[in-house]
From TrEMBL:
<feature type="transmembrane region" description="Helical">
    <location>
        <begin position="228"/>
        <end position="248"/>
    </location>
</feature>
<feature type="transmembrane region" description="Helical">
    <location>
        <begin position="205"/>
        <end position="222"/>
    </location>
</feature>
<dbReference type="InterPro" id="IPR038330">
    <property type="entry name" value="TspO/MBR-related_sf"/>
</dbReference>
<feature type="transmembrane region" description="Helical">
    <location>
        <begin position="107"/>
        <end position="127"/>
    </location>
</feature>
<feature type="transmembrane region" description="Helical">
    <location>
        <begin position="148"/>
        <end position="168"/>
    </location>
</feature>
<keyword id="KW-1133">Transmembrane helix</keyword>
<feature type="transmembrane region" description="Helical">
    <location>
        <begin position="81"/>
        <end position="101"/>
    </location>
</feature>
<keyword id="KW-0812">Transmembrane</keyword>
<feature type="transmembrane region" description="Helical">
    <location>
        <begin position="180"/>
        <end position="198"/>
    </location>
</feature>
<feature type="transmembrane region" description="Helical">
    <location>
        <begin position="7"/>
        <end position="28"/>
    </location>
</feature>
<keyword id="KW-0472">Membrane</keyword>
<feature type="transmembrane region" description="Helical">
    <location>
        <begin position="48"/>
        <end position="69"/>
    </location>
</feature>
<protein>
    <submittedName>
        <fullName>Tryptophan-rich sensory protein</fullName>
    </submittedName>
</protein>
Length: 256
């Protein structure tokens, strides 16, 4: 069963990367990720450079499927990790691919539960390997912890952005509350999620992705909305400071 999962993981990732590559060629609905994003531009949309993080995510996932794959030397720890991941990595790849297609064909509302499924599958991968993922082993950190912490961190932000895009599409009035005010609410939600991940789940890399995204949101609003610009910077700094404190506390904690 281990080898079957290893092969399935590799195939699923290759297909997902292929679909994501094609998504930027206009082959699907004569649209690209950027053109759809531009249609539903809102105050939570980050500057374009923020999406370059996908290169890092896919590089990390390639490392995962190779290191924990069928062509490297198996160990008990590797086999246990693959079995703990089970179907969840394949599910995450399917959800990722479906999200791309629903986004490009402008089924914006449907893309939200698909993104939720993607987020849940990543958290399941992390949770199922909790005992190993926090080990001090360098290879485990590089090929398991960092890829899924960064990936899930980005998806947590992308999910909020997805909701914002849908609300923009249906021209939601916001109960008379301004778009800027609702964006600040989204910042608050993002802060709560990421502080929980920092202090309760010890997932610093997860939260640093939010810092990256928030700075990109600030850049996107620098010349158009000073309120959102300043709030995004303050939120990014607040989360970053919490990450630094958590890492310092962890480093100085006495060994049991």
């Amino acid at each position: 069963m281990t080898r079957r999962f290893q092969i399935l993981n590799m195939v699923a990732l290759v297909v997902t990367i292929g679909i994501n590559y094609l998504s930027n060629t206009g082959i699907f609905n004569n649209e690209t990720m950027a053109t759809i994003s531009a249609k539903y531009q809102n105050l939570f949309t980050p500057a374009g450079y923020a999406f370059s993080i996908w290169a890092l995510i896919y590089l990390g996932l390639l490392g995962f499927v190779i290191y924990f794959g069928p062509f490297t030397k198996n160990t008990d720890a590797k086999e246990k990790t693959v079995l703990n991941v089970g179907w969840w990595f394949v599910i995450s790849c399917i959800a990722n691919s479906l999200w791309v297609l629903t986004w490009l064909y402008e089924y914006t509302f449907l893309s939200i539960p698909i993104m939720v499924l993607l987020f849940i599958s990543l958290l399941k991968i992390i949770g199922n390997n909790r005992g190993l993922i926090e080990s001090k082993d360098f290879k485990t950190g590089i090929f398991l912890r960092l890829p899924f912490y960064i990936y899930s961190g980005w998806i947590s932000v992308a999910l909020i952005a997805d909701v914002a895009a849908y609300l923009k599409k249906i021209q939601w009035s916001g109960f008379g509350i301004s778009e800027a005010s609702w964006t600040l609410v989204m910042f608050a939600v993002a802060t709560i999620i990421h502080l929980y991940m920092v202090w309760k789940m010890n997932m610093s890399a997860f939260a640093l992705v939010a810092v990256w995204a928030l700075i990109a949101i600030a850049v996107a609003n620098q010349d158009s909305n000073q309120t959102v610009y300043i709030a995004a910077i303050i939120t990014a700094i607040f989360i970053f400071v919490n990450v630094c404190f958590q890492m310092f506390k962890k480093r100085t904690a006495p060994l049991n």
